[in-house]
Amino acid sequence: MATIDVPQLNKAFASEYRFRQRTGKEYALLPLRFLPLDDDRYVATNFAGEYIVLARPDLQALIRHELVPQGGLYNALKAKHFLLDGDSSVAIDLLACKYRTKHSLLSQLTSLFLFVVTLRCEHSCPYCQVSRQSQDRHAFDMRRCDAERAIDFVFSSPSEHVKVEFQGGEPLLNFDLIRWVVDQVLERNETEKKQIAFVIATNLALIDNDILAFCKAHEIFISTSLDGPRDLHNANRPRPGHDSYERTLEGIAKARDALGRDRVAALMTTTRASLNQPEAIVDEYVRQGFTSIFLRALSPFGFAVKTGAIDGYTTDEWLAFYRRALAHILRLNMQGVVFREEYAALLLRKILTPYPTGYVDLQSPAGIGLSCIAFNYEGSIYASDEARMLAEMGDFTFRLGRLESDSIEAVLGSPKLLDYLAISMTESAPMCADCGLQPYCGSDPVYHYSTQGDMVGRKTTSGFCRKNMEIIKHLIRLLEDDREASPILRSWIR
Amino acid sequence: MPIPEHRSDSGRSPTEFTFDLSLYRLSAIQKAAYRFTGPFRVELDRVTESQVRVKLVPHPGNSPSVDPNTLPNEVLDQELRETVADETRGVRELLLAQAFSNLPLTDPVGENADYRDDPLKIAEIRSPSH
């Protein structure tokens, strides 16, 4: 056991021994977690989430205080704040600073507000979570009085940077409300002075010049859906005329012309039909001029469950798809095509920098309510987009309140949400607390509640856990073992 | 390194290990066993005052994706984790306090003093023998 005098809380002065003991012969452990990376190696992470890959004997030697001082491994572990000796006194301050930086978003509360302006959609995608085939505007469109209250919530956020995202259904079916909300927000912001970004998540089938002119005038971003090549996209996204792919590409071209290339992004969803063609999906994105893709699995909510589409593949099948797609993307980069996978980029930011990401699913405490709030078309307030999707299946567990009657203080300070957040912390969840990948992962109470009936979730059978663990370990192996892939992955960090 | 007693292992039949509590903490055995709760029903029994038996029974109809014979190594890993947790508990509390407090706790004099007072004697001229 070390005899190093580690600084203690409320101890104003270090002991005389600490100042005499400057030889580096003894060391004290700093907090660390570890996990097997493969048969021979472990990945260990320090308090701030910096990692090192160790052979098992080296890990044991570190923890049993058997390391040879001043050796290469010793110095690497010391430099990365896995141990502390008499020669180093800055590790505590640096670690605390990095840890605080990693959690700096907590003080901002939510900055992402989803306005579900309608549930109506002219598509009938089998995996869609929520959409309704209906012409009844009154039944499935957000009312202006509810939108007005939602705007109050936006301006109640302490966050200086705010994103307002219009969701559906197909939000362009209620473009009048989008127009009204944008005008109201901008008018109010003349005095509030927040940094505000607007996004419309649309399939682009209904985009026209008037809408684009409004988007241009108000610097609105477009986020659309492109699942891959024509046959795959049209099979995934049925609509009258079987022309979703053609309309999407036409819409992307129009939107780029009007708004600029950087204001149009696309997302894909993996279906069973996608699994055997990851390369073709990536190539389609490259062909259409995108510089990145976000590879997403089906989520276990809403119609995807009802139609049985969610049973279309296992987590392991999706992981095989993901690895193939990532390998193809790396090959393209090696050939000079600059292209990024967004989920990997998010994780790499967490793995290789002290900075946080606002991605809702990778937060601890969970991102529900803290990273996102969803205002549903019928006036309910939900903790996340997935929470309102669950509600469409009749489960209102994550409904936090009503726009007409509740304040942001009541919603974000509700015992219900605070309870959910308290149990969501991976720092204390079974298995997560000890996991070497804990600093990179997160907590998704809505996923685990809907798949296991428990918000914390049993990680031994959790698809969320398996997916994230396997992707993170895969990325670390690439960083460590693949000299060509490593610099490419590092270049994706933003 | 002591090896736990391995009672049996044949395909889909239960696998049993007996652990000596003078060598392994009960909490380490429990946490390691928990990691097998996906593909197995896990049973823990106290065989004697100083021995705990862990039985891993495969769920019917599933072929386990995890090798039950890796349990002893998992227990060893958990022992190391317990060692780290015990040794770093104090510094972990300090780090959290330091990270989320506006008040520096490790060096209040150096952090808060007026530089003109030079409490750490940084500007003091020392003789070469120092």
What's this entry about, in short?
The complex is a heterodimer of chains A (494) and B (130). Chain A has 494 residues and is of the alpha/beta class. Chain A is 41% helix and 13% strand.
Topology:
The complex is a heterodimer of chains A (494) and B (130).
Chain A lengths: L15 H5 L6 E3 L2 E5 L4 E6 L4 E5 H8 L8 H8 L3 E3 L5 H12 L9 E5 L20 H4 L3 H13 L4 E7 L7 H18 L2 E7 L7 H9 L2 E6 L4 H7 L7 H16 L4 E4 L10 H10 L4 E2 L8 H5 L8 H20 L5 E2 H11 L20 E3 L4 E3 L2 H8 L6 E4 L5 H5 L2 H9 L21 H8 L10 H19 L3 H7 L3
Helix pairs in contact in A: 6-7, 8-10, 11-13, 13-19, 19-20
Chain B lengths: L4 E2 L8 E6 L5 H9 L5 E9 L2 E8 L12 H30 L7 H5 L18
Antiparallel strand pairs in B: 1-2, 2-4, 3-4
Task: Describe the overall structure.
- The complex is a heterodimer of chains A (494) and B (130).
- Chain A has 494 residues and is α/β, with parallel strands linked by helices.
- Chain A folds into two domains: 25-102, no CATH class; 117-416, TIM Barrel (Alpha-Beta Barrel).
- Chain A is built from 20 helices and 15 strands.
- Chain A has helices at residues 16-20, 56-63, 72-79, 91-102, 137-140, 144-156, 175-192, 209-217, 230-236, 244-259, 278-287, 302-306, 315-334, 342-352, 385-392, 408-412, 415-423, 445-452, 463-481, 485-491; strands at residues 27-29, 32-36, 41-46, 51-55, 83-85, 112-116, 161-167, 195-201, 220-225, 264-267, 292-293, 340-341, 373-375, 380-382, 399-402.
- In chain A, α13 packs parallel to α19.
- The two termini of chain A are 41 Å apart.
- The relative contact order of chain A is 0.10.
- Chain B has 130 residues and is an alpha+beta fold.
- Chain B has a single domain, classed as Gyrase A, domain 2 (2-Layer Sandwich), CATH 3.30.1360.
- Helix content of chain B is 34%, strand content 19%.
- Chain B contains three helices and four strands.
- Chain B has helices at 26-34, 71-100, 108-112, and strands spanning 5-6, 15-20, 40-48, 51-58.
- In chain B, strands 1-2-4-3 form a four-stranded antiparallel beta sheet, with helices on one face.
- In chain B, a hairpin with a 2-residue loop joins β3 and β4.
- In chain B, α1 packs across α2 (71-100).
- Chains A and B meet through β2, α2 and α4 of A and α2 of B.
